[in-house]
What we know:
Elements: E1 2-9, H1 14-32, E2 36-43, E3 55-56, H2 57-65, H3 69-82, E4 93-94, H4 98-109, H5 113-125, H6 134-144, H7 153-165, E5 173-176, E6 182-183, H8 188-201
Parallel strand pairs: 1-2
Antiparallel strand pairs: 1-5, 3-4, 5-6
Helix pairs in contact: 1-5, 1-8, 2-3, 4-5, 4-7, 5-6
Amino acid sequence: MSTTVQFVFDIPCVWSYFGFTRLRRALARFRADGGQADVVLLPFQLDPGASVEGEPKLQVLRRAFGADAEAAVTRITAMAAEEGLLFRHENAISSNSFEAHRLIAVAARQGLGEEMTERLFRAHHTDELNIADLDTLKTLAEETGVRWSHEGAEETRAALELVRNSGVRGVPVYRFAGRPPLTGAQAEQTLLAALTSAAQEHPHHL
């Protein structure tokens, strides 16, 4: 069984992190049963106007949720714990995710796209690092075994435009071969079923 899945996401998006975590668990089960799956990681920016320097994430959340911001943070942190993830918000930085997506494209060409994506999610949501800072990104690349490169900016811009032109307005989005797209933080079992069906019905086909 062999198939391809496209995953559209943004690093600062908590639902993308949940969705990616569940997708990787579904992929692990699929691959353990002999399945083969290529993951195409497609970028989306929830806030393309965010600065490289960034600002405190709590500030951004307060603008979005107002008086409910603290309750939202508590709720999301508890949900993350149920996924086995540790979320920290006190010193988290909300910044531009373009360079992080570019690094993922670089890593993908080296066969480490999934690993780099996971590390960047963790850097933002757990380690409270600025994922727009190049020195930080170089350190994360080295940790993950990715050879640093300044290439991929045009490729990333083109991918962002392609995703926007496809009608995506929120993330995460999963596209399995020959099946309608799935959106939101889908359950692991749902993703495993979609992988299996896609592999059986449309092998080697996007």
